[in-house]
Structures are given as structure tokens and as C-alpha cells.
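User: Fold both of these, please.

Assistant: Here is the first one.
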Amino acid sequence: MSGRARAFGAAADDYDRLRPAPAPEALGWLLPSPDVTMLDLGAGTGLLSRALAAEGVTDVVAVEPDDLMRAVLAARGPGVRALAGTAEEIPLPDRSVDAVLVASAWHWFDHERATAEVARVLRPGGVLGLLWSAADPGVGWIAELGRVGRVEAPRSAPTMTGEFTVELPAGAPFGPGESRTFRRSTWMAAEDVVAMVGTYSSVLTLPADAQAEVRRRAREHVEQQVGTDPVLVPFVTAAWRTVRE
């Protein structure tokens, strides 16, 4: 895992409190049945794991390399098996899971090695599902907030605005992929919208004074655009799935 990816641990509590969980409809599309053994790969603080539990999935294994993120996961998702590990070295036996889901983390992986490991641990017919969830960049004030907050689209992440494709390494034992986007809205305190900007790696890796300046500019923008009262924030989840051959 890159040094930039490891920056999230320093903001684990805020990340867990402020980042959006995937839309429930996206999980239903990826996993038509909850009766599966599911791997949450690059699980972070367990936002996806807990969302899966809420949808009735009872056998969830979460793999996360960052100790601070994994500690939050273990504390707030007591029914989830939390393991130290990476996408490039998954600490599970061959053909041991029915589905592998990756939420807002695929862009951090070595795709050659991670794809081989996912293929190893998935049973034939199992699902690989990739998700990215974010405040909807198709809404003007949110798009501008991303620019103010230096929130960059990660490499290999979708545009969040429509259909998209994910290219797996040549020869990977997976069928054709398909994608969908799902939208929902959540009420947030204006100050939490500002704080959410500070949970992205492009901000977390800045010096402390630069982070403070980003937060100041983000606060100014939010107050100008939506005021200081709670605001209904539109979110989008981009989801992609394929099946292990």
C-alpha cells in the first residue's frame, strides 16, 4: 500500500463518521442473495462491511492493512472478521469466498497482483464487485467544493456520471463486466460537509497549515452556497461487477 493510501489512518474516526457508505441498492445489485461468504477487500473502517450486515449478509470477512483503520472496523463491526492483509496477499485459502467487494479502494491496488489474488480466493461463479461512493460531482456546488478542497479523482476510478468500464489484466479468469450508478441523498451538518473534505488523501498528505487553509476555503464555499444549516447532500455510488469463470 502506498504512503498516500496510509494517510487515511490518521483520520480514521472522521473517515468512518463522514464518508458515505455505498447505496443499499448497489449492494443488492452486486449480491442478489445475502447467503454468501463475502470478502470486503481494502475494508478501511468497515463502512461496506457494516452496510452488508445491515442488508442481511451474515458471513463477512474484512481485510485491511492499516492498523488504525482496522481498529475502528473491529470496534464498530463486532460481527465482522477483521484480518490484517493486503489485496496483493489476501490471508484466505483458495476458493474460500463467494464474493469479493472493494469499496473506494481498487485504485490503490497493484491490479495485476490483486486480480490474481481475487481469482484465487473466489469460488467459480463468484462475484467481484467494485464500488466508488462520493458526493455527486454532477451538482454544481459539490463539484466546486471538490476543486476548493483539492479532492482529486483517483486513477482508475469512474467519473461517477454514467456507465463506465473497468479493465482487468489480460487473461484474468473473469467474464464481461457491467456497471450501474445509484443515487441517494443524506442530511448532513454544514460543518460535517466541510470536515468530509479533509478525509481525502489529497488533503491528508498536505502540511498542517495547508490542510487548515483547505478547510477554511471549503467552509467559506459551503457557507456561501448552502448556508450553515443542515443540508441535503446528494451522493452517488458507481458499481461494477464481473463473475469468476
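And the second sequence with its predicted structure:
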Amino acid sequence: MTGADLTVPERFRGPARSGNGGWTAGSLAERVLASADRPGKHVTVEVTLRQPPPLDTPLTVEHLDDGDGSLTVLAFEGARIAEARRVDSPLTPVDKVDPSTAQAAMRSYAGLRSHPFPGCFACGPDRADGDGLRIFPGPTGPGTVASCWLPHHSLVGSGDVVDTGDRGAQRVGQATTWAALDCVGGWSADLVGRPMVLGRMTARVDALPVVGEPHVVVGRRLRADGRKTFTASTLYDADGRVVGTAEHVWIAVDPATFS
């Protein structure tokens, strides 16, 4: 079954010419949740990125039955860009840190000195406040990083904000929530010395982030295997409750091929 097209606007880029992996994956996950028999919170979705998502280009979304259950495919001119499915994989939250620790860690964010993709929507230092998320994960211990994040009111005009009717609160949508959970995982490894792009992301969003309220996002390096690095991340709200948690597979690349 073919659904409506999905387009990754240039604002939501990761590398200069392709979509941020987390934002793209979250956009596709939103389609999975909408088509599920039991849509709602606490559903885990796995998204595999096959090719860099092109920007400002209508991409086809199809819901297929591949024999193992429903598969949602994002494609361009017949080539698969990404695949998504619901999974039962357990996701363990990364231990939270307090906001003052996260704020202090941001001052040591390695991406402020050198960054393979400085225009990245989620973690790029070249993005202005209100344009990008400006999540700057700095070290809090061996293989762990943290950053504060305040969902900016400019997101209201991005088409990725949900009005839940909860005392007038506006909440960031799935795509931006996944973006917030994305790059923090990569920075728990050495993204400067070993540039990587997202290959797979598995995430569960328990509650959408409230616009204008402070959050803390944490990342942890799990292991490496050849070109692949495995990480995890968790987003917490101001009361220390889990907003979402994720695991990632990163693929080492030459950043020049994405410029």
C-alpha cells in the first residue's frame, strides 16, 4: 500500500546534502505508528537507513508485508532510502544526569572545535538558536556524554509540533524527538577522529517533549565492531522522567563524500 509522500526539508539536514538521520528515521517511524493496529505510546520502532536521504525531494512511502510483519519503506525512484518496522526489542535507558552536570559538559563539546557536519540540524554548531536543536553533548565520564536541550518555539512553524490539548501545551513531534535522540549517541564515541553517519536507529518515545521546557539528553557508547559503532541515548524531561530512549548503529565514513 502506497501512502503520501514524505519530504525532508533542507532545514533538517545532517550532512550538507542529505537529511539528518534521526529526523528522517523519526518521520518514517511516525508513519509506522499511524498505520499500526494499536497506535500509541510505548511502541518501539526500528529504522534502517540504506542511503543518504535527499533533501527537498518527495520520497515515496509504502507499507508492505515482508513475511515477518509490516515493513514501511521510504524510496526514491525505486531505490530504498530507509526501512522501518515495529519491534519488541527492549531498550534500557541511559542513566540520567542533573541539568547542571549536562550544562557544564556542553562547554567541553568536541564538535565546537571540529565537526564533520557542522550544519547538522541536531548537533551542528553552525546552526543558530531556533534554527537547529543545538544539542552539544560533552563528556560526563568514560564513554558517556550529556547536553541540555530546550525545544525552541520556532519548531511550532516547522510542521513537527503537536497540540495535545494538555493545558495548551505544544509538544515536539516524533521526527524532532528522534533527532534529539540521534547525534548524542554518536558523540559518546569519537566523531571527530572517526566520522560516522547513522545506519540504524531503534527508539521508543514515551511522551513527546514540551516546547519551551528544559530537557536533558544523555548518550553512552556500547561497543564497536569494524566500521560499526553501537551507542544508546535517553531524553529526560525537567522532572527526570524518560521522554524517549534509543539505540543506534553508526557506520564510519569519509565525510568528504557527503559534502
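The domain at 10-258 is CATH 2.40.160.210 (Porin).
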